[in-house]
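Example (one chain per record):
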Amino acid sequence: MIYRALPLIAVLFLTLLALSATSFAGVPTTQTEPADEARQRFQARILQRAQQLNTLKQRYQFRLRDLGQDLREKSIKLAVDGMGTPGRLSTLEVELTNLIRRRSELETAMAATRSAIQEAQIASAFDRKIEDDARLNRYIQQIDEIDLTLAEQTSPEPEVKRLERRKAALEAKAAQRRKELETSLRKATVDRLTAQLDSQEQAIEKLDEQIKQSKFTLGDLIYQMTQYLTARDEEKATRELLGQVQRQLERLSTNWESWEQADWADLDRAVLGLPRSRESK
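Predicted structure:
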């Protein structure tokens, strides 16, 4: 994954090593060649390799500088926009979770409101409130008093008929009052619940818009975070490549005299950081 982030740099590095390996391996030495000339040719090869490695080192250093600046800018932007550390919930993720939870709670409340509206259509839904009505209770009380009077009545028949007509009138008024109360209470309840349901639906629409916007923003930040992580991987890979170049330069600058008597092929393998061939061990 790391080296896929640096396809061009890695190819250049491997190509440079391959070319240098060919250049070292292709220089023969003979017993008849003067020692000074062989030494000069050897030193020229060492110098050529050092120049190539220094060029590559400089290229890696420039790339690290650019990557460092890019990472700082990306890190600041992610922090300002609310993106947290990878592997932890960011501010936006927490906000989105809260929005979704509030929407779920609101849907539950809407279901309860719809159920209450349906219950309000039932005739017995307001019996308790109707029974508590003072006016209706006065009618009922007067009807009870007439019933008691009729039960004790010893008056002539005209008085009985008068009481019965009064009772019938009171019963009609009580029924009418009951109906008015039922209609009024049902309408008030349904109107209130309908307004509540409308408000909940508007809140749902607003939450849906907020969730949509939050998801869009979060998606953009996730993309930015992916770019940040890719750049960080590239920086790590570049530092590793730079370290390899520096180690090779150190070998060339500190140990080349100890390789003066080695075969050219073994010397080339040593410069590349590879073990010597079996024949020379």
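Caption: Confidence is low (pLDDT under 50) at residues 1-32, 259-264.
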